[in-house]
TrEMBL record:
GO terms for molecular function: fatty acyl-CoA hydrolase activity. CDD domains: PaaI_thioesterase. InterPro entries: ACOT13, HotDog_dom_sf, PAAI_dom, Thioestr_dom. The keyword Hydrolase applies. This is Thioesterase domain-containing protein. Pfam families: 4HBT. It comes from Amphritea japonica ATCC BAA-1530. The keyword Hydrolase applies.
């Protein structure tokens, strides 16, 4: 099983996704999990002052990607095949978002995980996401 540090993953994400900082910053990872933070600013907001759905989707997607690559190694061509998100509560104004992904299953060709998003310092879930990733045959 690959052992990838947060620092190595952040370097990989910066090299392969230079726009990635808009999607969040990896803050922790381990065996089948990853955590990210989205420093919310004006570019993430929609009318009414809440964080936009696409911003939360991107945060969840990159969090799952980091968790998966922590398991299978730095495979750039692992791709999202399904993302389902339930927006549950309005994010707290002026707080960063925190996401945690737990992988549910990593097979030979597919991986499934869940991501919970909260406003920093709050217990209330802002969004719940399930994702499926396709894993390339040749790694």
């Amino acid at each position: 099983m690959p052992v990838i540090t947060v620092e190595e993953m952040n370097v990989f994400l910066n090299e392969h996704f230079p726009q990635g900082e808009k999607f969040g910053v990896l803050t922790g990872m381990g065996d089948a999990w990853a955590e990210m933070r989205l420093p919310v600013d004006d570019e993430h907001l929609r009318p009414g002052g809440t964080v936009s759905g696409p911003s939360m989707m991107a945060l969840a997607d990159v969090c799952m990607y980091a968790a998966l690559l922590g398991q299978i190694g730095l495979v750039p061509l692992a791709v999202t095949t399904n993302l389902n998100i339930n927006f549950m509560n309005k994010p707290e104004s002026g707080r960063d978002l925190v996401a945690r992904c737990n992988l549910m299953k990593v097979g030979k060709r597919l991986a499934v995980g869940e991501v919970w998003i909260r406003s920093e310092g709050c217990e209330e879930i802002v969004a719940h996401t399930t994702l499926t990733y396709s894993i390339p045959v040749e790694r």
